[in-house]
Amino acid sequence: MGIIKVMDEMLANKIAAGEVVEKVSSVIKELVENSIDAGGKTIKVELINAGIKEMRVTDDGKGMDSTDALLAFTPHATSKIKNENDLYFINTLGFRGEALPSIASVSEVELNTYAEGESTKILIKGGKLEETGTSNISRGTSITVRNLFYNTPARLKFLKSFYTELNSVVSLIEKMALANPKISFTLKSENKEVIRTSGSGDLLKVIHEIYGYNVSKNMVSIQGENLDYEIHGYVSNINISKSTKNNMTVLVNGRIITNTYITKIIKDAYHTFLAENRYPIVVINIEVDPTLIDVNIHPTKQDIKISKIESLEELLFSLIRNQLNKTDNTFKAYIETPESEEKTETKTIYYDEQPTFKEEKEEPKQVEEQTIDFYISKETLEYDAQIEEKEIEEKTLIQPVGLAMGTYLFANDENNVYMIDIHAANERINYEKYLKELKEQKTNKISLLFPINIELTKNEYMTIIENQELIKNLGIEFEEFGVQTIRVTAHPTWLKEGYETESINKIFDLLVNMGKKFDRIKFNEQLAINLSCKMSVKANTNIGFLEQDILLKRLMKCEFPYTCPHGRPTIIKYTKYELEKLFKRVN
Q1: What is the rounded distance in angstroms from the CA atom of residue 173 to the CA atom of residue 184?
Q2: Angle separating helix axes 260-269 and 309-326, nearest 10 degrees
Q3: DSSP state of 279
Q4: pLDDT value for 121
């Protein structure tokens, strides 16, 4: 009938461009990836009108001869793969051969390249070859793209404002630089330098060049491997966080990806360390056998499929969590002073002309390596004023000074002053205590002389009966008592006295809310959080010096004393030098 017809090449390229080229940064991404694949060690990106009018990417890579230069604009022409089997062993950023013809179909493209003593110039407009000739370039490749979407006005209309497009390119080049620390990147807008990295190969130095001193000082190195994956990179401690995920740079075999599951693993590793609406800065490279991943599932290759994801989750989570637990995460109430302040008594990372970073160790680390000999005899977190006198005389390195506003405890050691939020500190102490109790295989119970009656809705009642074995394992014994009512006859010893009914109700509520999606680990975590908040001393509660001392000692015994389980800081540090600066005692 002649209804079905083959599209002409130009129309097909425009359709392909709709998938590959969404905005200015999409073009820059494809061109820069080609420069990286070509072995470029110095890559320069220049923009006019945020790239909408003109963008140029120049590299010092291996370049192309005239034949390859022309062939590069042919759809599906690529040097990266040769047959179907190569799809399972992709080690380059590009491989489909779609980018250049797609870009050329919706813009004016000028290519200048040099290889094997031959320089070539090609000019293409709207997908049509306009000019070929000899270029004056003597190394690498330079591609200039002008008037993006000039022949597709509907696409042009959907480009964002100048600053939105520029910010998108800036974010992209930052991630490219972090992904390739051995490559020097330069980004210019309207002939003004926006980004420059050294290409030294030192990832921490690139982080410093991108984010600045205060971020790089608070980055923590992670490195580890298992049978399937090798991971290395940097994650921020809890002093540095952002309100979006944009600064989480995840690489798989050097490719920048956006994967929801990996992002969730990283976020989970910061659970109870950062607030729910805060995200860390990370630069993590995951090395894996190419056969275990599929990079060919997204038009822009930004997402991938990963095999053995459980193995990756276990390794990545444990690396981040363990490293954070080893690190001094005490919040600072100031912007740290760089090495240029030579008179400071605090030790800092410093940056010089060399590519190697140096770090002087702090001796001693006042919070992280805390030594506490004070023994608290009671398991409960109730303050105990009956502690023996000889125990009171034993001191911690951090000693209480006094309470301000009934909320903030001031303490000090030889070189620092600390301010502790007593409610947040109690929450952390209680949280870790409850979490430990919930993980115990054997639970001590108290039989009740006067049982607790709890009336439930029909749905709640059925859920509790269905999970009665789990509830029994928590140390709660109960029996059915009338219609939709249960009678609790025993409960675990770790429930706070006077709050037994409220605590049991919280346990039942959490069970009902989780329903069929019940997970014991998440249940323990959330229950510990719920109980710790309610059972902690409230703000504006005056506590005596003895209670202040006990609180400090208990906080310092926590595995992670720096935040409450909601991610709010428990303790903020001022160094002696920073205080002296505030009081103008030093310059």
Answers
A1: 11
A2: 30
A3: B
A4: 93
Strand 485-492 with 477-480, pairing:
antiparallel
Beta bridge partner(s), residue 233:
222, 284
Residue 40 structure tokens: 């470029």
Average pLDDT over all residues of the chain: 80
Kindly state the tokens that stand for 72: 């590069």
DSSP letter at 7 equals: P
User: What is the enclosing helix (H) or strand (E) of 319?
Assistant: helix 309-326
The dihedrals phi and psi of 494, each to the nearest 5 degrees, come to -80, -5
Q: Lowest mean pLDDT: which of 3-7, 298-302, 389-393? A: 389-393
In the prediction, which pLDDT does 291 show?
79
- In the chain, % helix, strand, coil (3-state, to 5) comes to 35, 25, 40
**Which residues have CB under 8 Å from 58's CB, separation 6+?**
43, 44, 46, 140, 141, 142, 143
Angle between helices 203-211 and 162-179 (to 10 degrees): 160
Q: What is the enclosing helix (H) or strand (E) of 112?
A: strand 108-115
Matching residue, tokens 């659970």:
271
Residues 331 and 45: their CA atoms lie apart, in Å, by 38
Q: Is 369 exposed, middle or buried, given 0-12, 13-18 or 19+ CB atoms closer than 10 A?
A: exposed
Angle, CA 530 vertex, CA 526 and CA 535 arms, to 5°: 145
